[in-house]
Amino acid sequence: MLSFKEVLSNSELPHKLGYKNSKEMEKDLRKSYPNNTKDDDEFQIFEFKKLHITQWEGSAINQKNMIVKKADVLFDMGEYKQSSLCYQAALEYDPEDAHLLNRIGDNLTRLGQFGDAIKNYKKAIKVEPDNEYLYNNIAIAYLNKGEPDKALKMSDEALKLNSENTTILYWRGIIYEMLNEFDKALKYFDHVLELDDSNPDVWNERGTLLNMLGKSEEALLSYDKSLELCLDDFKDSNTWASKGNTLLGLQRYEEAIECYDNALKIDDTNLIILNNKGVAYMELNDFQNAIKCFTKVLVMDPSNPDAQVLQEVCLDYL
Predict the structure, then answer these.
(1) What's the CA angle centered on 45, arms 44 and 51, to 5 degrees?
(2) What range does the domain containing 212 cover?
(3) Domain edge (last residue) among 227, 252, 268
(4) Which residues of 38-76 are buried (b: 16+ CB within 10 A; e: fewer)?
(5) Has residue 164 been placed in a domain?
(6) Per-residue pLDDT reduced to its tens digit, 97-134
(7) What local confidence, expressed as pLDDT, does residue 20 receive?
(8) DSSP string covering 67-94, please?
(9) How many domains does the chain have?
(10) Full-model pTM
(11) Quick one: 103 and 66 in the same domain?
């Protein structure tokens, strides 16, 4: 156990814990433990001794497992950099652990380091060449990197291994969507739903695609199905907003406002939803309520151009 003051004054500790320097370590500790950074606050420091795989016995194996568990917790907390460092430490015990290589890739993807993520996924494939998820993860990384053509090629490889994997089929639909091949994307989303119709994300994406194809009424049915299945509040908010936007385009303004209200119950600081709700009120000639929406936006973002212009238009009608 070391006090916070002792941690900061230990010149060897940053390197042992994977930081570039003491400033980076201090910044990360203050961010991760904002209520425990007084000089006398205590921290438990773990250091791990590397053993060759031939020396693995009870305690050594448990040591690796402990590092992995810590990495998993950090990943779930969104501490992707530190999680990646822990997985790398665990990887030293077994450089050919495909699971760890994959998890390092997952962390790097979330850090925006897509090229490095792809390298780790490819290392994992050398160990597990028949793992379709690894090819799919490379496809997602290429997609995030802005290279959908390469993503499609990796998706091809994943499908060769398992043509009925709903995760791979879903992401293949996303790839075609990014390539603006909406009919092909819809085909894959429909195929996913034939295999498993319980995924709200697929129904939501299908609704978005149908909107792009000018099939608004069908899109509404997909959004309703997504809302029926959705258990995640944040995704729920997005789906309500998407349904509201569809109704707005269909000139069903009162129904659109109801959807925006449902979205705002979950995410009441979403400026886009507030602006769109204001537009719906404008279409109903209810300029007072429209102004209230735009005012809320401007309180949070005084320079929001949409709210500024729309509020001025409303004032001209009063």
Answers:
(1) 135
(2) 197-268
(3) 268
(4) eeeeeeeeeebeebeeeeeeeebeebbeebbebbeebbe
(5) no
(6) 999 999 999 999 999 999 999 999 999 999 999 999 99
(7) 67
(8) HHHHHHHHHHTT-HHHHHHHHHHHHTT-
(9) 4
(10) 0.71
(11) yes
